[in-house]
Amino acid sequence: MIKKVLYIFFLSFLISCGSSKKVTQSSSSKRTSVKKRRAVNRTSNSEPSIADKIVWTAVTYKGTPYKYAGVSRKGMDCSGLIYTSFKKRDIIVPRSSGLLYKEGYRISLREVKRGDLLFFKTTNKSRSKINHVALVTSVKSGVISFIHSTSSKGVIVSTLNQNYWKRAFIEAKRVL
Known about the structure:
alpha+beta; endopeptidase fold (from Nostoc punctiforme); six-stranded antiparallel β-sheet; two-stranded parallel sheet; 5 helices; about 25% strand
């Protein structure tokens, strides 16, 4: 019994310390832009990657209501979720889904992994090609899960297997 308690305590300590470590910062500024950030996704087998940390941050906003142009727990939109999750890990990305779409490089769905961005066109009325962005949280058995903020349900996790998102999907990009 004591061993179990100590083991749980030890695991809790590791998890909390791992998620609170600072992301490597450039010497010239505290925050780095996504263009300067082309680091290897995992530094070692025991350390969480920057993608893991960004996803963990995004997941803490699950349940946050939708608010156009919002970037706080009071409310946020899809690009606000991405912007805030990256910013909390000292990586600056553009604030709008259209500008985010210009970052990184295109990848196929077969290459998608945790921390990549998915771009969607959810309406025919939109002048631009892209009007929605999401962050990949996991890829398991070919099922791509992502976190995003919807106008109807706020910050939620969805899958690309859902017909609505499958039809609206435009492209996947890697920015890390």
